[in-house]
Amino acid sequence: MVSADKSAWVRRCLKALPAELQEHLLREGRLAELPAGATLLQVGQYVRAVPVVLSGRVKVYLTMDDRRLLLYYIRPEESCVMSFSAVLEGKPSQIVAEAEEDTALLLISSDDIPQLLRDYPVLNLLFFRQYQQRYAGLVDNIGQVLFHRLDERLLSYLQERCRLTGHRIVEVTHRELAEDLGTVREVITRTLKKLEAEGLVRSLGDGALEVC
């Protein structure tokens, strides 16, 4: 149950939902806070609760053979469609979800999801819209991997990070860039030098990049 002192804040984050559903989630949901870098969900883990991001940002990615590929970000007022799908199918998670920055979540018990969908059909519509959004993003990711050079993908990734944060400076390590783009650190280092020579990014040191 959400405490009274935080209920008004949570209501603002859930403003797109019917008032009755908001009250149910405030009563039955659970608030959780994750520090940056904390893992919310691992591959093979059964989903016990579907998260709704209230503040901060969560990134979702695939892992295979010690490499990973970024799928999408979960931003405030959004949930994780892959977790939602795993709950409905009763299957373990196929993705990893990790807090990219300090993040506050409202956790909805997976046991409540089927009944909530029956009682509040608007939830089906909201999750369907997010499915459409994620599907379009995944198609774009596949196109990036298949048809775009790594320097184009890297620049697009950095520009997206800027759009998400509202800042031109991105704090990220070469290792993290390599992991999110499914390559290796040495290749990222060479590619960043190329982008910097072209005047598209500028290294500020200490893992900070300015997107020009």
TrEMBL record:
Q: Which domain of life is it from?
A: Bacteria
All residue ranges annotated as the HTH crp-type domain in the record: 148-212
Q: What is this protein called?
A: Crp/Fnr family transcriptional regulator
* Keyword annotations of the record: DNA-binding, Transcription, Transcription regulation
State if Lyase is listed as a keyword.
no
Entry's Gene Ontology molecular function annotations = DNA binding; DNA-binding transcription factor activity
Q: Which organism is it from?
A: Phaeodactylibacter luteus
Q: What's an example GO cellular component term for this entry?
A: cytosol
UniProt cross-references to Pfam families, sorted A to Z: cNMP_binding, HTH_Crp_2
- Which residue ranges does the record assign to the Cyclic nucleotide-binding domain? 13-134
